[in-house]
């Protein structure tokens, strides 16, 4: 159920598709950078589990491998020192409150493949000024992007479904201070 990676021990949960979700990690010394492994005990890591980094006040950088497809509910909720998340592969789903309250996060860049941004997944990130979304996003909950950088620049492919959905959200919520940047 666990694996040692340098100074980090991970606990995993087996998923029905034969992959695993990391739901806990422990270090013997403080770590400001955590590189999630692609595999644990020969099984592919496909998910960052619920609340994995919730409330963490040490980690500044998290590196996700190309195998991660989902970031669970509240995975980075109130990880107040988190400054950077390096996303190597096509994360498809951001569950509810994935990055809620990440006050030190300044930029998020999602490669092609992202399909769903859940309720409050990217909210109350006061330092977040640049968000890069691919044109593949099919579902964006309208309760996103509040209390982020002023303004939050959301970079999207021009004419994409993602851009159309963001325009709808802006029309229905006058209080949002977001700027769509077509690329």
From TrEMBL:
Record-linked SUPFAM superfamilies: L domain-like
Pfam families according to UniProt: LRR_5
> What InterPro entries does the annotation carry?
LRR_5, LRR_dom_sf, Surface_bspA-like
Protein known as: Leucine-rich repeat domain-containing protein
* Species name: Fusicatenibacter saccharivorans
């Amino acid at each position: 159920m666990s694996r040692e990676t340098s100074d980090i021990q991970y606990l995993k949960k087996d998923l029905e598709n034969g992959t695993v979700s990391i739901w806990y990690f422990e270090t013997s010394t403080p770590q400001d950078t955590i590189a999630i492994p692609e595999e644990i005990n020969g099984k592919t890591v496909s998910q960052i589990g619920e609340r994995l980094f919730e409330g963490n006040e040490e980690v500044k950088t998290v590196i996700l491998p190309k195998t991660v497809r989902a970031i669970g509910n509240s995975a980075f909720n109130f990880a107040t020192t988190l400054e950077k998340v390096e996303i190597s592969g096509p994360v498809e789903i951001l569950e509810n409150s994935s990055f809620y309250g990440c006050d030190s996060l300044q930029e998020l860049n999602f490669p092609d493949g992202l399909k769903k941004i859940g309720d409050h997944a990217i909210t109350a990130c006061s330092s977040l000024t640049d968000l890069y979304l691919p044109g593949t996003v099919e579902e964006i909950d309208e309760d996103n992007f509040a209390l982020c950088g002023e303004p939050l620049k959301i970079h999207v492919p021009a004419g994409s479904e993602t851009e159309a959905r963001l325009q709808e959200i802006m029309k229905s919520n006058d209080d949002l201070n977001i700027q769509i940047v077509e690329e």
